[in-house]
Amino acid sequence: MLLAGIFQNGFDYLIPANLLGQLLVLDFFFWNLGTPLQKSQTGMLRAILHNALSKHPELIPSTLPNIYNNWKDTYLNDKPTFVEMKRALEFFMEKASQFFKICIFIDGIDELAGEHKELAQLVRSLTIRNVKVVVSSRPINPSVKVFRGCPTLRLQDLTRHDMDQYIRGNLVNHQAMCQMSRFDPQVAGGLVSEIKLKAEGVFLWVRLVVRLLVDGLEAGDSVMDLQRKLRSLPRDLKDLYRRMLSKILPEYQVQASEMLQMFHVWNTYTSHQPLGVVNFAFAMHPLDEAFHRPVAPLNLDQYIWLYNSTEARIQSRCCGLLEVGRDRGPTNAALDWATGEDNDGSAVRYMHRTVAEFLVSSEVWEEMSKMTQHSGFNPALNLSSVCLSMLKSASNITITSASKRMLNNLINLLGSSICFDGRVLPEYMKGMGPSMIKHQDLFSHLLGGEASRDKDWLQNFRSDVEKAISKHSAEPFKVLDKRRLLEPLFAVHNTSSSIDLHGLCPLRTIQAIRMKVALRVKLNFGIHMLLLPMHLASLQPPHMDLSPPRFNSQIPGGLTAVQSRIKKLQID
């Protein structure tokens, strides 16, 4: 992510004053842990074209004439092909380069999920008059061959001075090392030279090794201990990560596995949204705590205590593979968290993105999963409790993009294929009712519309569900099954209402009374509707086959209608 770092830390100051307004800068950063579009040629072409045409919309008609002229007949889900995108980008470059100088930055082409030689050739073909392309990559053979003869920089040739400064600032100037150097003045210089030689230009390796040596210094290591440790450390980053994992204390290994699994699953299902320290603390707590947590805000002292204790647990359990951002600190983080926000500057994160690549490798992930396979641990369920606990504990949630994402995170995590659990899902549903009442200003817009529309919607929903169940039932549909399967709709409220639902709910039971209240309190009813299909799939009575794949594929009419209504409820 070398080029990504340049953009994040400001790029405008690099542009000469005489080129301001005449230079079009475009970029794309490959990421092999991201979505398919983040690691494909098609994704690169689409991103660069979108960036370019957003800055110069006057070129849309000539660059994408078919889409422009037929936009009324084009469905939103229609995706342009790779050939169309390639032709469009080539045309844009040829046209725009007559008026602008164009510079394209493409980072990490070695992280492509596909044929690297084809990508390298495509990138090189973009370099016409007034167009420059800057590429970063590990020295893989296809890139080396295709770009042979092009101007090249080797990172290791440019980082020696920075490495020297980092080692001296963090190791040589350490108090314990200064005391040691009084008796052996050559020791510091020898360690600096050996670290730089072994690092082979990889700054991250230097950072990790210096941290390990400083830990040794603070534990009382001698000069010989430090030298022995340095010489035993592997040069390869993945081998170094494996060594760090092996140093986790036995009593912490299961907790470390749970923490690393949860962080990976969170990133997978939330598209790498920030995960705050206190929310990570909620994920580490037993599920029952989220269910029984009162609907009341955390005060500042509680938040800071949770923040500091969780940061200490991350440091002691994860051996530096996970860390906490220090840009804002616990007090400022508490202010963000109270409104439903998690600022990236105070969130849990990987020490480096290569840690994520290492952890999801099949061998390492299998080893971590074995540590928790007999405990019933389910990272998605634990993370679902984060969303529920935050809804209960945040003091002033507002309608912000972050708070909207938070509710969708709960739905995505509960709906993931790895967390169907008929025992705990109703508990989430029960916990959502009081939480949604607390934040009704945020959630009351979920259903909207007139009461009659809600009734029609409910009636159609019930009909679709019952038809789907009956289709898979080996026996006639029973009232008992109906009551059991629809019980989650009425699990929260037990008071009566004057709303007349005659004919809508034929069951003359307490469930019918609760149905009336659920309709009146629409914000509670909305979340029940979002979670009900998952609950149906999790129950699976003996005489029914409601497994999600078959349920989805063989009931297209009924379930499609259900899904479309559910999508209308989800927060945009």
From TrEMBL:
<dbReference type="Pfam" id="PF24883">
    <property type="entry name" value="NPHP3_N"/>
</dbReference>
<dbReference type="Pfam" id="PF25053">
    <property type="entry name" value="DUF7791"/>
</dbReference>
<dbReference type="InterPro" id="IPR056693">
    <property type="entry name" value="DUF7791"/>
</dbReference>
<keyword id="KW-0677">Repeat</keyword>
<dbReference type="InterPro" id="IPR056884">
    <property type="entry name" value="NPHP3-like_N"/>
</dbReference>
<feature type="domain" description="DUF7791">
    <location>
        <begin position="248"/>
        <end position="397"/>
    </location>
</feature>
<protein>
    <recommendedName>
        <fullName>Vegetative incompatibility protein HET-E-1</fullName>
    </recommendedName>
</protein>
<feature type="domain" description="Nephrocystin 3-like N-terminal">
    <location>
        <begin position="27"/>
        <end position="138"/>
    </location>
</feature>
